[in-house]
Amino acid sequence: MFDDLVISSANPKKTNKPWTVALSVLVQSAIVVFMILIPLIYTEALPKQMLTTFLVAPAPPPPPPPPAVAVTRIVKPVARLIQQGKMMAPTVIPKKSKHD
Question: Which residue of 28, 38, 47, 58 lies most exposed, with the fewest beta carbons within 10 A?
């Protein structure tokens, strides 16, 4: 009795015959096709208000933002410590460092 229930028994029973697999695929395919075709055939059951929202054109996009005002920046010359590939000593000591 338990030999029929255990998969790892000495004589396992083969239960998936080709015709049962084919029948199962056929039945499941028919159910899926049936579930797809029923809403396409009976469209009067769909809510009318939901359908009208699909047919209305979307609102126009908002106008583009105004152009940005150009900001003028004052560019300070930066002392270069490397000239012609050689490191040079600074000529001026800054009053404030970048980390203050």
Answer: 58
